[in-house]
Structure prediction request, 1187 residues.
Amino acid sequence: MSTYTQKKGFGATLWDYLTTVDHKKIAILYLIAGGIFFVLGGLEAMFIRIQLAVPNNDFVSAGLYNEILTMHGTTMIFLAAMPLVFAFMNAVVPLQIGARDVAFPFLNSLGFWLFFFGGVFLNLSWFLGGAPDAGWTSYASLSLASEGHGIDFYTLGLQISGAGTLIGGINFLVTIINMRTPGMTYMRMPLFTWSSFVVSALILFAFPPLTVGLFLMIFDRLFGANFFDVANGGNTIIWEHLFWIFGHPEVYILILPAFGIFSEIFATFSRKRLFGYSSMVFATVLIGFLGFMVWAHHMFTTGLGPIANAIFAVATMAIAVPTGIKIFNWLFTMWGGSISFTTPMLYAIAFIPSFVAGGVTGIMNAAASADYQFHDSYFVVAHFHYVIVGGVVLGLLAGTHFYWPKMFGTMLNEFLGKITFWLFLIGFHLTFFIQHFLGLMGMPRRIFTFLPGQGLETGNMISTVGAFFMAVAVVILLINVVITQVKNVQVGNDPWGDGRTLEWAIPSPPPFYNFKQLPLVRGLDAYWLEKMEGKKGMTPAEPIGDIHMPNSSFIPFMISFGLFVAAFGAMYRVDYSWGLPVLVIGMLITILSMAVRSVKDDHGFHIHKEDLMNDDDKGGKA
Amino acid sequence: MKRLAKWRLFSLFTIMTLILSGCGEPFLSTLRPAGEVAKTQYDLMLLSTAIMVGVIVVVTLIFLIVIFKFRRKDEKIPKQVEGSHTLEIIWTVIPIILLLILAVPTVTSTFKLADVSPMEELNENGERDVLVVNVRANLYWWEFEYPDQKIVTSQDLVVPTGERVYFNIKASDVKHSFWIPAVGGKMDTNTDGVNKFWLEFDQEAANEAGDLFYGKCAELCGPSHALMDFKVKALPRAEFDQWVTAMQDVEDPAKAETPLAQQGQEIFNNSCIGCHAVTPSNSAPEAARLAPNLSNFGERSRIAGILDYNEEELKNWLRDPEVYKPGNKMTGTYGQLSEEELDALAEYLMNLKVQD
Amino acid sequence: MAAEEKMTLETWPASPEKQTLEGKNKFLGFWLFLGGETVLFASLFATYLALKDKVPSAEHALAKDLFELPLVFVATMLLLTSSLTSVYAMYHMKNFNFKKMQLWLGITVLLGLAFLLLEIYEFNHYVHEFGHTFTSSAFGSAFYTLVGFHGGHVAFGLLWITTLMIRNSKRGLNLYNAPKFYVASLYWHFIDVVWVFIFTVVYLMGMVG
Prediction:
């Protein structure tokens, strides 16, 4: 990104990124946007921990605290973890399957801009009368009672960004099914691609219930409907079901890509193929499938009755089996291997005990009758942070270090990387381990303060100290990024030296068409196989020929922008007369942009054979 | 290595602190079970923890061997192993067995804790043999109605020990969750319908906890969610019966005795009685019971569920409830009270007692 | 074979919608999208069933008071027929008969339009005769949301097919627009299938009580 930027000037680069349909650039956009939201969500987390450091603290007020906790959860799940997952899916999956781009480059860009505008809309609530304050779960009775427009920012913002995610999911499904290079059979796909595949299917089936739930909430709050208004026949439990039918698979949507990243890292830095590849694939699919059968374990105390609770308890426990298979397969991938402790590998190694701890507390939560004690207490807070931070965030940090050279052509500093790692790991356990006990000692979740004399002081103080470790770790990571990009030392195809999959066979960053000639895949770990036979690169599967590429387009930006405008209209329609026209104008911008896209033929362009021949293998200009 | 050693020392310290702080307070902690429900849940916690620690030990063992034994020493390429069916069967079957061991008590206890059939059973007199309490959660306060005894109280739940007490629970505004950690797991109070469950309060544990268990709202319900506490007075059956009789005996609002209290009663009747009742046999419909019943306010353990029970705190609360419970429904419903009025009101309220 | 190339009956392939990679992607992607739409409608159906006849007081009309079978039956027939006519259109598309394809698509659009008008009449009837509105009860909200989402899909489908017909009226069929026509008709079938469920779950089951 760097050298090219300087040559091109800021305006041109900006326009390039606003209109790009290249999966590698979209990956960078996701990484930057997701990174910014991650820092925002982290700040909110720090406010939470400062407020809870001592009893009866008044660092933030009660109402503001609820806004912060809501935005922390919502931001981290929807605006940080999801886009960062998409960043790596975009950066890596097409390369791993030997494709020149995703199936729908235009939709890929649309997906990003929808997410981006949804996220911006949601966060503008801070400046426009207050953020949502009913928790990221936004249970219906509380969110209907919530005053101001906070909840409307939540529903409309998530609706827009959710649409982007759904589009992304479909895109990756089609990409993986249709765009694999010759020889790349399903059972030769790298595990990150497999997990992206399963995750995309989960997105496809999990997001529509959220869409419906959000619509119902929007209709209730802004258009006078009565879905959750008990006095008019409504029922708030519908929201809980719809939310968790989405919400539980969402957890797997986040964790499976992390599993995929770790699988690549374990194999790479142990110099060994993944142990039990086929059972890993099977376990991934099974986790995805079971993920849809267990949503009601979030509702054990709602009063669904013992039959439902018992069924969902047992179904939930079943998920432990495929997850356990994965853990042991990772351990045995390293067994007998030749382990090199690089930063990504450190994250991967630390992930195993951290995630096992999160997993076993998950099983404890699954025991319905015991969960009556755990539910909505800090035990649950500890559990899901062990899973999401100990699993997803460690995975994303590992992925950042591991794939940074492939995305930017430079290596993050290993020394700083290891400092980040140790600070983050120590801070993480310090923050969350103690929270298990706080919960068991009777501390409910989502409380803005606690009274002295309940035995909760020490634990909360320790937890807050831990949070600062994590904050420092993130700051060091950011410094590392800046230093690395300023130094700008370019690296070659396979900077880790042990790359196994196709992405390491091409330059870092890859040229914008990825593969000059599509590679022929002869087995699992395609690049490794060639290397072991002493070859330098992949055997091509086709002669050099013209490459068909899609055109850049500004339309995705406009479509998303229209919805962004319309969301303001829908929201302020209840207060001001200008709301309705704004809603109409916004929808018109979107629909007209779609019509332009539909009516204007876009055949893309061809890179001619001669130009390809002249292009030396120096690498691309991401 | 050094780093690892430090890390271990550190975790040792963490564990030490935990042991020192014990398992939490006897009136609040789920780790000090004070009744049949909490005990059942505690046993299940122990069982699941034992199984899970077993799993962790195995994983950690393999983990440690792996990261110490298989560090990169040379540039040799290790043997590429595809997998092992035997191993895979082992780590599929053993977890299934472990989960079955956990699943059986989970399912049986889930059904046991949901058994509320005695609530429906009537004896030959057409009465219930068991005690039933209707819990109604409101924005930041709790109402406890004893339908068979025809009395209502608030904030301090009074129950007999050594028997199963059955609860009908619901919310009147937004969703809350009814939780007495030391005595048993929680149940949500929905706005849509009534949930039922039971708890049992252990006498010995109650003594240890100072006869007063802490109750919490466990579901985010608004700004003062954290402050929506209540207390549970667990008494031997005989004392409980006395309390019930005393409550039932109050037919009219208690007459204030001192002149100051009489003045307070006048203020109360002008400004407060619209929402707060002072007779336990409150026959008003639920929707009209807008605020805690104060018949036995003089016997409460806390002011507003959170403040120490003394006159000063009561006056602080009355002066500006918003400071203590942001977003409560009482703020602004009565005019500014002068210091004299506060004194009088406090005097009156603190003397509202049903037992001597 | 470039997508925009001029085709003849002889060069026209058997499955023109899946001839190019773009077409193949579109075909698969759209099927997957319909999978997501199925879950969307399933959620709406579940909501409707949970809130059916849930009204604040006895004065409100219930499902059995509202629905009239003849009207709904006519609407159903219109939509089912339009699905059939879109099949004819795709038959002619595959045979490279652009004019006949346009004709049958035109008929499809007209039938869809008639369905939509009937639905508008129906809603209007419920609002004015029974006071059954979007805001009158949870039942009303759920009914209008479910049936209205379907109606919205119909309206979007009409707009889409019409746009396609106008855009391509001058240039005929090629491998670039064949997948577009194909997925539009797929969408139309999906709308039809959803309606069959609405007819059964909302109307027939509603009449039974």
User: Anything to note?
Assistant: The mean pLDDT of chain B is 91. Chain B is about 40% helix and 20% strand.
